[in-house]
Design goal:
Layout (H helix, E strand, L loop, with lengths): L4 H6 L4 H20 L9 E16 L2 E4 L7 H17 L5 H12 L4 E4 L2 E15 L2 E2 L29
Antiparallel strand pairs: 1-2, 1-4, 3-4, 4-5
Helix pairs in contact: 3-4
């Protein structure tokens, strides 16, 4: 222990700071009790929507989403363009039609048709489920978008890479 009086002043107990820490701990514990993550099922009181974007393909069985929702419309257009360009590379005589469709999507078209397939840029409404106890946390039944259905070319998705 130091014999210097100035050092002793630095080592003194700060009663005010200790009381602030105790009060902070009490407030945190009250919030933990108010916003518990365990307990009964969460009852929906409202939803808070956010718009995202993706692309869907209408096939003989109906509509199918081509990749997970992304936050920006332009990103969805780029992703759909890339999907169409990959298809163009392996489409034989339909290749030029897929390439033109890719250009049209990049240029702002919301829907293109190649053969019997209809491709459409779509809005996706994502929601935050609000309950009486606050926003609902992840649930065991939640499902991620399956990687096997993500048709975006690598590196964004598991699909075929674009060749430059």
């Amino acid at each position: 222990m130091s014999t210097n009086p100035e050092d002793a002043a630095d080592e003194e107990f700060d009663d005010v700071a200790a009381r602030r820490l105790l009060e902070l701990g009490r407030r945190e514990e009250e919030l933990r009790k108010e916003f518990r993550l365990d307990g009964p099922d969460w009852e929906r009181m409202s939803v808070s929507p956010y718009t995202a974007y993706s692309a869907m393909l209408y096939e003989d069985r109906g509509w199918r989403q081509l990749f997970p929702a992304v936050p920006a419309e332009e990103e969805a257009r780029t992703d759909l363009r890339d999907v169409l360009l990959v298809r163009a590379a392996g489409a034989g005589e339909l290749g030029p039609r897929y390439a033109r469709a890719a250009e049209a999507v990049a240029g702002g078209e919301d829907q293109v048709i190649v053969g019997d397939d209809v491709y459409r840029v779509v809005r996706v409404e994502q929601t935050v489920i609000m309950t009486g106890r606050g926003p609902q946390p992840p649930q065991p039944r939640d499902q991620e978008f399956p990687d096997v259905l993500d048709e975006r070319p690598a590196p964004r998705g598991p699909g075929d890479a674009l060749e430059d």
